[in-house]
Amino acid sequence: MNDPRLREAIGRVVAGAENRKLLSAIDAPPRPRSSELVEILRMLQEVVYPGFYGDAPLTRANLGDRLAYVLHQVHAKLSNQIEKALMPDDPSGAAARAPELATGFLETLPAIADMVADDVRAAFDGDPAATGFDEIILSYPGVMAIFTYRVAHALHVAGVPLIPRMMTEFAHLETGVDVHPGARIGRSFFIDHGTGIVIGETTDIGNNVKLYQGVTLGALSFPKNERGELIRGTKRHPTVEDDVVIYAGATILGGETVVGRGSVIGGSVWLTASVPPGTRVTLQGDQLKREPRVAAVAPARR
To answer: Which residues does residue 198 pair with via DSSP β-bridges, in sequence order?
Structure first.
């Protein structure tokens, strides 16, 4: 390395890396690795969608042994990643807590799979272009994003730091659907097309809800304390009740905004106030029009 300019440039980069504390994890415990979390998600796809994913052909004769093997691998890998996530805040207890949290997650997996089955059914019932469940499971980005969210949300509820957000950001990168793992989403949820969907952390979504591309369920404002710091942990995002349809490009903002059960929100609508159940909201010119839906609201399914 005889070029003095090159030596000087490298020296400045190294000095910056040593002194730029905000961006540095030097001498810190290792963090969870995205590649490992993606592998865990791939293995969970093999378990939740047996026969659709994974390299090993599945039959009823080998199903139990194969899934048991995969789940042991998931437990070992997830325990390792959870331990890394816990280390910064709990260096002495991380190694003991991580396997327990991983086991607790596996205990929720049957319920997660049941909800994913409802989501796949909702996609088939809600999309006349769907040719079958194979197409939905293997090619629908919204279904892939919801599957990842269901996994990440279970970890989030269990108190696992960092990993749930890393998982949903992987799905965001893959599908264009940005769902925070803290959002609460009911059964039979369908995202049609998917690209550009944003669902914020404190969003509440009921059962049998359908979103089209470009929908934002976001915050209207970010309250601050007397020191000018963001107040965290408040309800900032809307509530969408059962049996609601929200069409492409609609934006619904605010923690106090409630979209009543059975409502339809039209494309490109900008909504910052609640609407009662059974309301149709559309955009006519630059004005919102609100009217009762013609169709009867279906009974809620639980």
So the answer is: 178, 216
Four-CA torsion 134, 200, 241, 287, nearest 10 degrees: -110
pTM for this structure?
A: 0.90
What pLDDT is stored for residue 302 in this prediction?
44
**Please, is 71 exposed, middle or buried when counting C-beta atoms within 10 Å of its C-beta (0-12, 13-18, 19+)?**
middle
Q: Is residue 75 part of a domain?
A: yes
Rounded to whole angstroms, how far apart are CA atoms 38 and 212? 26
Query: What does R_g of the chain's alpha carbons equal in angstroms?
Result: 22
How far from the centroid of its chain's Cα atoms is residue 250's Cα?
19
Q: Where are the beta strands (DSSP E) in 46-183?
A: 178-179
Kindly state whether residue 19 falls inside one of the protein's structural domains: no
Alpha-carbon gap, residue 163 to 32, rounded angstroms: 7
Domain that holds residue 125: 29-175
Question: Is there a contact between 173 and 192 (Cβ–Cβ < 8 Å)?
Answer: no
